């Protein structure tokens, strides 16, 4: 249960990060929330079945939330490289490859994290496509409302 709680926390955090980084849309809503529910179901069910069948031990399962939070950290440092400047951008540029190395060091759980990232990207893109009509221009001001 602790592993599931940590996993759910990081999936929710990733969904909120995705929601914050997506451009604004005419009908604001909770795009990321749907992605959390779907990715939890799509990735959680097979993991629970693997643990229940004995093919996956509890200690092996604990590595999955580690890979998930490292994936969120990797996305955050990559975003920081893109949006920050000065010393903060340099720090992010140093941290990003280090986080990637740690993520790859988790072993097979990186595949579960990749599956979650792909599912979230696919579901987030689908909800984004259905939310706004095609051909609606997005201005620079809408993307960066500072």
TrEMBL record:
Keywords: Membrane, Transmembrane, Transmembrane helix. The chain crosses the membrane at residues 34-56, 62-83, 90-123. This is Uncharacterized protein. It comes from Kitasatospora cheerisanensis KCTC 2395. The lineage of its organism: Bacteria, Bacillati, Actinomycetota, Actinomycetes, Kitasatosporales.
């Amino acid at each position: 249960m602790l592993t599931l709680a940590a996993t759910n926390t990081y999936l929710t955090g990733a969904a909120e990060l995705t929601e914050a980084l997506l451009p604004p849309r005419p009908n604001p809503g909770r795009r990321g929330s749907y992605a959390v529910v779907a990715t939890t179901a799509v990735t959680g069910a097979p993991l629970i079945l693997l643990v229940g069948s004995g093919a996956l031990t509890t200690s092996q399962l604990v590595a999955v939330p580690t890979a998930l939070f490292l994936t969120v950290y990797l996305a955050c440092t990559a975003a920081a490289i893109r949006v920050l400047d000065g010393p903060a951008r340099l720090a992010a540029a140093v941290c990003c490859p280090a986080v990637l190395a740690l993520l790859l060091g988790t072993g097979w759980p990186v595949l579960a994290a990749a599956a979650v990232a792909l599912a979230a990207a696919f579901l987030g893109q689908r909800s984004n496509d259905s939310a706004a009509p095609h051909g609606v221009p997005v201005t620079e001001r809408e993307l960066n409302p500072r």
